[in-house]
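Justification of computing resources. Each target in the renewal requires a structure prediction run like the one illustrated here; the chain below, 402 residues long, is used simply to show the kind of job we budget for.
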Amino acid sequence: MLTFEEARKRLLARAKPFGVERVHLSRAIGRVLAESVVAPLDLPAFSYSAMDGYALRLETLGGAGPFTLPVAGESRTGHVPAPLVPRTAARIFTGAEIPEGADAVVAQEDVERRDDAIVVRTVPRPGQHIRRAGEDIAWGEAALERGKRLGPPALALLSSLDIVEVAVARAPRVTVVATGDELRPAGAAHEAGKIPDALSLPIAELARAAGASVRIAPFVLDEPGATEVALERALDGTDLLVTIGGVSVGDHDLVRPALEARGVALDFWKVAIKPGKPLASGVHARSGAVVLALPGNPASAIITFALFGVPLLRAMQGDARPLPRTIPLPLAAPYRKKAGRLEFVRALVEDGPRGPLVRPLENQASGALTSLAWADALALIPAEAEALAEGALVEVLHTQDL
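Resulting structure tokens:
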């Protein structure tokens, strides 16, 4: 069996770019920039006040205070103010443009208002409470680098720069095929011996969240000829084929021989992890499509796709950070296991007396969806470990980062 690191390294080596497309920001969430973005203007575009208060010119406050200045004029958001009248102050509001001639803003709570004048007792600093034009980013500076996955803050920055269309990597095309005589659609009429398909939708949504375009193929029955035909069809027009189930060594596990019969050269088919040992990957000789064959147990399938499929899809788009990050946290309780495989333990992060702790959930069975649905983290228990004491540090991957 390959180690987790070696298997993922081999898989990510299959990632290749699929070209570039331009999309409107309304369709850019989760996509990866194919070109760096340079600021086409200053941000902010003009100098504005960071406080409600009064704009003034410091040279007006010569000598010893306090200083009394008449209030002449006003600056509010959405309007260009008149130049500052010499030896006066202008009423100004947060976000409003600094009048020409003003070089500081005094917060309204730091002055005394007397009818149409203010009394200033403390001389402000030059530029106090002023956000200068170009202070955030100046024209011509790099705003976002190629390989950046676009989230809401990045979309906000692009919109602020008046950019409404960006060049992104083409979305990988993913086909999801669930196999097994036992499957029926969730919500369909109950039949003896049948169970609802619980995996096609979550696997597809994980792929979509990673920027992919996804289709879910019809179920495949456990029959050699039908499996081969279905997989051949699924490989057509696909960058990544994801199969669910039928990849182990049972008499009715037909996916591996069917893939090989249709020209898929498997690179590996066992990984030293738990859950998810029966995991296979390869490449279709004719189309170049990458194949990721997931185990059929629910927790195994979702965890392995999150750990292997999601990073692969990100790497296919040139994501500068395709791998999820882990952080070390102490165990909230002892944990025992057999040595030999790296375990991804479903767990909860909780507050301890000295900081966060990670607590493994009880049911770690490969078929258990409850513990996976309840978990907010995966604790990585090293392959060689057999017994870890309470307080032992382990790497933790938050499920929201998958």
